[in-house]
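Lab notebook: predicted structure, single chain.

Context: the supervisor wants predicted structures on file for every construct in the current expression panel, including those that have not yet been purified. This is the next one on the list. No modifications to the sequence; it matches the entry in the shared construct table.
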Amino acid sequence: MVSTQSQVSKFKKPKVKKVAGTRTRDVFSFDYSFLFIVIFIIAFGLIMIYSASEYSSQQDFGNTWGYFRKQLFSVIIGAGAMALAFFINYRVYNRGRVPWIIFIVSLISMFALFSPLGITINGARRWLDLKVTTLQPAEFVKIGVIILTASLICLSTAKFVRFKKIFRIWVFTGIIPAAIVYLVSSNLSSAIIVVLISLLMTFVAYSGYKPYVFLIAIGIVIALAAVMYANSADPDSGSFRLNRIAVWLHPEDYAETTGYQTVQSLYAIGSGGFFGKGLGRSMQKLSFIPEAQNDMIFAVICEELGIFGAILVVSLFIFLLWRILVIARRAPDRFGMLICMGVFFHIAIQVFLNIAVATNLIPNTGVTLPFISYGGSSILFLMYEMGMVLNVSRQIKEQ
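Prediction complete. Output recorded below exactly as produced.
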């Protein structure tokens, strides 16, 4: 019988023979490809914001640069936030009570909407007026959820955590903050994103899949029940959410009312052809699509740059997400990997929801397209997340 010691020795890491006159040293890596794609997407977003907002900016500011100038200012601030996150060792977020402090502060910022700082835009009270710029605290909550979820998962010494503990983490870092976001600001889309970020991060940490199949099945049943009810009920006498489902099912029936934005978005996408009408030549942005620089900017991209532009945008995001996965796979520790995966899921969820809404694959949710849609809070916190991922890549050692 072969001894246990001899069996273990088979799996020992082979010794590296050193060549005379040579020496090895640790070299810290830096993912320049990731940084380049982030800069490229942001620059592309600024170009498209100027193109999409040219007409509405003339109406609101008396010039064609109004929205572009405000977004550029947010990008500059975001660059500073990105640099700050890059120079902060990501392990700091997992020390002592730091993750709890960040998480609790992010939730407290939601209740600041009830203070004099809270302002109402388009009928929704979701922003804080900081004089220099406006801030949407729901975006801060997403970062708090990513950090605390990663920290709680790492508290377990096992490589994979038991489902009971994973479920408690998901409830605490997913359902509770999502409920606060929704109840305080009536922002269902951000609440859904918060829940999904926490759920998918815990899925990465759990070795099994059956409980998640069960959760997906429950979600599908609820969605089908909502669709069947909306299809049979009178949406005009129902709730706002019910009306959105009815518009999604039959947008042509509401083309002059609540389905106006959806129908105009489909017109824009359909009229672009393969190469589009040309940059700046969109017709739907001339007040046909309300605030075209926001949630429906993908429709303007399709109209001006065609299917080619749509494929380009999707390809850019796929490359960005791939680089995040590469950094996550090579992260020095589990916490770094989970931070990267949280950012990965955040971007992936928002890209999918935005494009799906613009093409009417799902009901309208009011989700921005990361780095491309107009929005100071979104670009600021997204760039901070990019800085966190860059810091993880900076800690990767190579020989």
